[in-house]
Amino acid sequence: MYVVAGLNTGTEYYLAKYKPRCIRWINENMAKHTESHNTLGDNIKADIPEPLIIKHIKEKKS
Length: 62
Hints:
This protein is an alpha+beta fold. The protein has one helix and five strands.
């Protein structure tokens, strides 16, 4: 299992079985389309409340 967590606070934002799902969640939920352009011409601005990390955690066995 992988968890998207805040680096400063340790808040867990999202939990997934696979790392690419965590990356997709960050891209879908922490980015907004704006009128500003980056160097590649994309209209995307990241709106992240704090630095995020993806941590690997052991699955809890029931």
